[in-house]
User: Fold Ferritin from Thermosipho africanus.
Amino acid sequence: MLKEKMTEALNKQINEELYSAYLYLSMSAYFEDMGLKGFANWMMVQAMEERDHAMKIYNYLVNQGARVKLYEIKEPPFEFGSIKNTFEEVLKHEQHITSKINELVDIAEELKDRATFNFLQWYIDEQVEEEENARDILTRLEFVGDDKNALFMLDRELAQRQYVP
Ligand code: OFO
Assistant:
């Protein structure tokens, strides 16, 4: 049986994850508008993964017999300035999510909630990967610079990313 404080914090995290999905969906639309299909695909897959992150918590709460509460999802930005700026925003956002996951772990520890503590380990590993992916693309963008051919190649590569449920 989950404590109320844990349930509330996990419900808030569902909202964070759904906002992440919304943010990346908006970034995907931004890239579509620029004609960068590969970048748009990468962001679309990212958005779908974020929805899965939310659903994983949703299912955990249901399985624990806790009540799911859905909060309002805020509006994501519409303009992102540049490709590089977009990925800087991704990295910043993922660092924010990492701090949220760490807060959840702190609560689980405080409440001696072993099951939730265990459940959250997957998110800890996932955040390492998420930050690394954003950093990796930022580094590649540095190399690309103003080279349109290199950008085209990178776009083609990002088009390969597939959604794995
Ligand atoms: Fe991007 O990992 Fe969830 O939010």
Summary: The chain has a mean pLDDT of 98. The chain has one domain: 2-157.
